[in-house]
């Protein structure tokens, strides 16, 4: 499997792409969350601060499953901080590829990670949002970053004040005849 990507630089491009990706992401979340119930957890792990987590799911996703996902969630949080700090470079496309290819069983859930100081209060602010549908990561959102699955094998990523990426996963002969799609 190969990847093709297109990068469009600039603050305006990042805002335009983020607006478009947000519309798609909100539509996706709304279509799933209406039938889901939220559950709140305070997840602890040796060597890390306690992480407040809200999980929206149709069936009960207990603490055991969340502890299985927690190392991956922490990795995503670290990667998004690296990207939004301007230290992502060429690793950006590789990171998006990892997000695209990481499978989470058959889970369909949305994970909200509030900032710990005001978690589960009316003042709550979300640090990260992660959407998983059918085991596939389809949405990642942070303060300066929005990544969303646009269609089969096509993902968009907007980085505030940097620009936007379209990352396309290519299979077999599609790789030979692929074209780069532009985010607009």
Mean pLDDT over the residues: 83
What is the string of helix and strand elements?
EHEEHHEEEEEE
Helix percentage range: 25-40%
**Which structural class should the secondary elements be placed in?**
alpha+beta
Total strands: 9
Low-confidence stretches: 173-184
Q: Span between N and C termini?
A: 26 Å
Principal-axis shape: globular
Strand order of the largest sheet: 1-9-8-7-6-5-4-3-2
Tally of contiguous helical segments: 3
Query: Strand percentage, roughly?
Result: 35-45%
Radius of gyration: 16 Å
Largest sheet, if any?
Answer: 9 strands, antiparallel
Assembly of the depicted chains: single chain
Question: Any overview of this molecule?
Answer:
Strand 7 and strand 8 form a beta hairpin. The two termini are 26 Å apart. By secondary structure, the protein is α+β, with helices and mostly antiparallel strands. A nine-stranded antiparallel β-sheet has the order 1-9-8-7-6-5-4-3-2. It is globular and about 40 Å long. It has helices at residues 11-33, 63-84, 91-101; strands at residues 2-9, 37-45, 48-57, 109-114, 126-133, 136-142, 145-151, 154-159, 163-170. It has three helices and nine strands, in the order E-H-E-E-H-H-E-E-E-E-E-E.
Task: Detail the topology: elements first, then pairings.
Blueprint: E1 2-9, H1 11-33, E2 37-45, E3 48-57, H2 63-84, H3 91-101, E4 109-114, E5 126-133, E6 136-142, E7 145-151, E8 154-159, E9 163-170
Antiparallel strand pairs: 1-9, 2-3, 3-4, 4-5, 5-6, 6-7, 7-8, 8-9
């Amino acid at each position: 499997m190969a990847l093709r990507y297109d990068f469009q630089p600039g603050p305006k491009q990042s805002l335009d792409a983020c607006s478009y990706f947000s519309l798609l992401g909100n539509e996706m979340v709304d279509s799933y969350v209406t039938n889901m119930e939220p559950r709140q957890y305070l997840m602890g792990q040796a060597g890390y601060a306690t992480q407040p987590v809200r999980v929206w799911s149709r069936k009960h996703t207990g603490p055991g499953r969340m502890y299985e996902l927690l190392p991956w969630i922490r990795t995503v949080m670290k990667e998004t901080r690296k990207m939004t700090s301007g230290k992502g470079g060429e690793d950006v496309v590789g990171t998006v590829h990892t997000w695209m290819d990481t499978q989470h069983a058959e889970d369909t859930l949305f994970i909200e990670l509030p900032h710990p100081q005001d978690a589960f209060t009316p003042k709550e602010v979300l640090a990260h949002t992660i959407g998983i549908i059918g085991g596939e990561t389809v949405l990642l959102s942070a303060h300066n970053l929005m990544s969303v699955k646009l269609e089969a094998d096509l993902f968009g990523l907007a980085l505030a004040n940097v620009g936007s990426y379209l990352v396309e996963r290519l299979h077999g002969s599609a790789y030979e005849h692929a074209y780069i799609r532009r985010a607009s």
